[in-house]
Amino acid sequence: MNQKNSTKRQGYVGWIEASICIGSFVHVKMFLANPRELCQMAGTAAWMVPLIGVIGAIVIFFILNHLTATFSRASLLSIAGLFWGPTIQFLLGILFSSLFILISGYELRIFAEFVLTTLLPQTPISIVVISMVVLNIYLAIGGFESLSRTIMIIAPIGLTVLTLALTFGGTMGTVYNLSPWLGYGFWDTLSAGLLYTSLYEEIILLGFIAPLFREQKDFRRSGLATLVLSAVLFVFAQVVYEMCFQIQSAQQMGFPLFQVTRLIRFETFLQRLDPMFVFVWASVSSVGLAVGLYGAALTLTQGIRATDFRPYLIPLAVLSICVSFIPPRSLDAVNTYSFIPWLLQIPFYGLPVILLLWSKLFYRPQENRP
Q: What is the DSSP string of 45-77?
């Protein structure tokens, strides 16, 4: 792929916009089922899991940062093509595009189920799914710069409402629900944290949009800001969720953070913040799902060395609809989605590690060869 032409088409992005945009993609899972899954894995110590997981994610990010600095902010697929040729680059492009579609498809299905449960119980699920996909195409067609500008409009409102909702929700709970503090034990908590490094696996998208940053320091700031912001929100949401529900209930709750907002009640002055939370959740998730669709189109484009990702948005969006209807029931979609991130962290984290090792052990720049 001609990176200079692609960059001119999409424009450059700032590190703040990029970090918040990718953060919206990371946090779609937080609004779906993540707090419940962490409680199932680590018990009352589930709030520690994001803290442990972010350490592994930071290590992967520094590998990404080193690679992009060494190869002038080339994308991971361009670096792979340089090492192993266009055939491997093509196959990797197909692989990562498929993985992004898999994530987006399952998140789309669970999002649609949430809308049907809370807002539109009589609406066919196909209408909700198709409407969301059309919105995703509209948001993604302008490229990453357009997505980042959209999320910058939503982010101040979204973060304010989320912070208030979680803060008020926390006042409805009790800190004693967090005990025993080590959950099922130190080693179980540590292993859960390492497994849930997958919480941050969407950070790999930075490796594909690296050519859109003007300077390496912007790339580095964006990645670190994304990870720090994500970890803070994951921990905050998890602590509040566990304070509000005893662990046995927390391990069974559907749409966990929505249930937290339904608890908020301050006598006659403030009740039922959940409609406002639904609006924020839907807005942030819409951008997050659009980022996933954009990532699928971008990686496919880089894999086949095309110059524009836009022609592939609609076909890939249709594929995401097909994936969303693979599970026959919503429960099947949730159960499958719970372990998909564990599997995806193998290629998402494995590619930059392999590229780094190859660059150190086997690659020699052309000008240094005899």
A: GGGGHHHHHHHHHHHHHHHHHHHHHHTTT--HH
